[in-house]
């Protein structure tokens, strides 16, 4: 019951919960940029939360069902055949076309049992910069690991996720920040500037990091290289923060003023270049 | 053991301000035992990051530190790797100019020490090497290169290093080695053997052998 890739559009990649235990060798965790959406897509089919999914970036990707099969989608609502936050049985020959304009950057496509794929450092996550994971291309076939969803689907053709679990990626809600390891080295003005300024996601953003456009904040000297976690606001000499994402460098010498709360890193992942961002320090 | 600890994000705790002896002893201890719930740890220059499954209080990790005793002497037997290097790097000349040395002196000074792998990262298998002679300490290049080939032997700040995968970088290139530091093919599987994937691990010693 496979899917054939007709077009990769802006970009598609196999992802899962990512790699664990390899940071000390310089291997980034990788995995889905928006873990919440990946978990939701998997849950709709009764899969393990971190089962392999296809991460679909923006528009253009197309897949053809070469048999009847259940699929689930979550994240950006960009597929015309299956709505985000729902699972549906699609029929042989139907085409999943990710062509709808949507808020959010990534849609997550799940199939029963997760997609079959080889593991690298315990994860299917595609990290072409480092030569890890299978890169899926036009013409490739991707297959589910199970024939049926891991929950009862007798007589039904569609499942929906409850409203509270869905995200619209629309809100101007604040992103909550925890103090970063070098918070104390930054001036009071710099800490204030981070939460009162208007920031925008730069077009020079990718799975390694989201760069911010906005004012320059004053930066202390660089530090001896230390471990860097996803969600960290590293501030290089030009004073424009870079928020490390899942494929980002594992160590670095730029001071880190703040760290996003985990739930907000998933939300940030869905913010396209040009999106305005508002930050606040979390109540501790 | 008494250490300075601070929170890093929701699930990270950073031990910082560690002396080299403390850091080295701690890392050897971590090969044998880890705090409960710690899913991984990462060596930094004078730091060790602990990543936990769930949020953990600084005081809980402090208790674990109270209970451990570090080995008092440095480990005697360590792996020593010899890397043959062709010194024809694009920055050899500019490094000579900036340091006031001749190119052959740069090569001689760079290939003299026995280096120690202090930290690995930013990319898989890249090693920050301690032991670079102070006469070769230079600030990183103002505009980093967008692509540096794997095997490039370089210096940056007080460190020497070898690029393990093609990546951008701001270090000064002195030469290249054909020895592979990272073999992505060996990384296949659920739990690959790090010794097959990476030539080096933190704590290893290496020296450079100039060849033609």
State mean pLDDT of chain B (0 to 100 scale): 93
Radius of gyration of chain A from CA coordinates: 20 Å
Lateral arrangement of strands in the main beta sheet of chain A: 19-12-13-16-15-18-11-20
Number of helices of chain B: 5
Strand content of chain B: 25-35%
Anisotropy-based shape of chain B:
globular
**Rough shape of chain A?**
elongated
What composes the largest sheet of chain A?
A: 8 strands, mixed
Give the termini separation of chain A. 49 Å
| Low-confidence regions of chain A | none
What's the gist of this structure?
Chain A has 284 residues and is mostly beta strands. Chain A is 9% helix and 27% strand. Chain B is α+β, with helices and mostly antiparallel strands and 212 residues long.
Give the SSE map.
The complex is a heterodimer of chains A (284) and B (212).
Chain A: E1 3-8, E2 12-15, H1 35-43, E3 53-57, E4 61-65, E5 69-75, E6 86-90, E7 95-97, E8 106-110, E9 141-142, E10 158-160, E11 175-179, H2 188-196, E12 199-201, E13 209-213, E14 226-227, E15 232-234, E16 242-244, E17 251-252, E18 256-260, H3 262-269, E19 276-277, E20 279-281
Parallel strand pairs in A: 11-20
Antiparallel strand pairs in A: 1-4, 1-9, 2-3, 3-8, 4-7, 5-6, 5-8, 6-10, 11-18, 12-13, 12-19, 13-16, 14-17, 15-16, 15-18
Chain B: E1 4-8, E2 12-16, H1 20-32, E3 38-43, E4 48-52, H2 58-67, E5 80-86, H3 92-99, H4 103-111, E6 115-120, E7 127-130, E8 145-148, E9 152-156, E10 159-162, E11 167-169, E12 172-176, H5 194-197, E13 205-211
Parallel strand pairs in B: 5-13
Antiparallel strand pairs in B: 1-2, 2-4, 3-4, 6-7, 6-13, 8-11, 9-10, 9-12
Account of the protein in words:
The complex is a heterodimer of chains A (about 280) and B (about 210). With about 280 residues, chain A is mostly beta strands. Helix content of chain A is about 10%, strand content about 25%. Chain A is built from 3 helices and 20 strands. Chain A has helices at about 35-45, 190-195, 260-270, and strands at about 5-10, 10-15, 55, 60-65, 70-75, 85-90, 95, 105-110, 140, 160, 175-180, 200, 210-215, 225, 230-235, 240-245, 250, 255-260, 275, 280. In chain A, the strands form 4 sheets. In chain A, strands 19-12-13-16-15-18-11-20 form an 8-stranded mixed β-sheet. Chain A starts with a strand and ends with a strand. In chain A, about 55% of the residues are buried. The longest helix of chain B is centred in the N-terminal third of the chain and has 13 residues, at about 20-30. A 4-stranded antiparallel β-sheet of chain B has the order 1-2-4-3, with helices on one face. Chain B is an alpha+beta fold. The termini of chain B are far apart. Chain B is built from 5 helices and 13 strands. In chain B, strand 6 and strand 7 (about 125-130) form a beta hairpin. The interface between A and B is large, with 36 and 45 residues.
């Amino acid at each position: 019951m496979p899917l054939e890739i007709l077009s990769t559009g802006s970009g598609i990649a196999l992802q899962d919960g990512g790699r664990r235990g390899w940071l000390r060798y310089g291997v980034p965790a990788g995995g889905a940029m928006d873990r919440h959406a990946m978990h939701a897509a998997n849950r709709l089919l009764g899969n393990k939360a971190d089962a392999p999914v296809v991460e679909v970036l923006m528009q253009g990707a197309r897949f053809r069902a070469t048999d009847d099969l259940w699929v689930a989608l979550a994240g950006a609502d960009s597929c015309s055949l299956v709505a985000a936050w729902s699972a549906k049985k699609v029929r042989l020959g139907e085409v999943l076309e990710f062509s709808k304009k949507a808020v959010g950057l990534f849609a997550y496509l799940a199939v029963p049992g997760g997609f079959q794929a080889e593991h690298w450092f315990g994860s299917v996550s595609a990290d072409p910069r480092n030569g890890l994971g299978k890169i899926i291309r036009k013409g490739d076939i991707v297959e589910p690991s199970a024939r049926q969803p891991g929950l009862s689907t007798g007589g039904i053709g569609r499942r929906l996720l409850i409203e509270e679990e869905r995200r619209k990626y629309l809100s101007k809600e604040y992103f909550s920040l925890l103090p970063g390891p070098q918070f104390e080295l930054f001036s009071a003005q710099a800490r204030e500037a981070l939460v009162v300024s208007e920031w925008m996601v730069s077009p020079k953003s990718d799975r390694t990091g989201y760069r911010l456009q906005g004012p320059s904040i004053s930066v202390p000297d660089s530090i001896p290289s230390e471990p860097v976690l996803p969600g960290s606001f590293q501030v290089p000499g030009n004073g424009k923060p870079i928020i490390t994402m899942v494929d980002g460098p594992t160590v670095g010498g730029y001071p880190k003023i703040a760290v996003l709360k985990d739930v907000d890193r998933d939300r940030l992942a869905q913010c396209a270049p040009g999106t305005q961002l508002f930050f606040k320090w979390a109540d501790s | 053991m008494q250490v300075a600890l601070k929170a890093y994000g929701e699930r990270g705790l950073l031990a910082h301000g560690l002396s080299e002896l403390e850091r080295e002893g701690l890392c050897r201890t971590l090969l044998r035992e880890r705090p409960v719930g710690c899913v991984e740890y990462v060596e930094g220059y004078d730091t060790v990051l602990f990543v936990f499954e769930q949020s953990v209080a600084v005081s809980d990790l402090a208790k674990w530190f109270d209970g451990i005793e570090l080995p008092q002497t440095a480990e005697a037997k360590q792996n020593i790797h010899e890397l043959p290097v062709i010194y024809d790097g694009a920055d050899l000349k500019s490094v000579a100019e900036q340091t006031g040395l001749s190119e052959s002196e740069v090569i001689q000074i760079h290939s003299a020490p026995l280096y120690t792998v202090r930290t690995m990262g930013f990319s898989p298998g890249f090693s920050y090497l301690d032991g670079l002679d102070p006469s070769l300490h230079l600030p990183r290049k103002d505009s980093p290169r967008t692509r540096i080939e794997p095997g490039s032997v370089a210096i940056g700040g007080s460190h020497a290093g070898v690029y393990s995968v093609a990546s951008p970088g701001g270090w000064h290139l002195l030469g290249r080695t054909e020895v592979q530091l990272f073999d992505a093919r060996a990384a296949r599987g659920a739990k690959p053997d790090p010794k097959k994937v990476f030539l080096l691990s933190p704590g290893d010693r290496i020296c450079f052998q100039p060849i033609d």
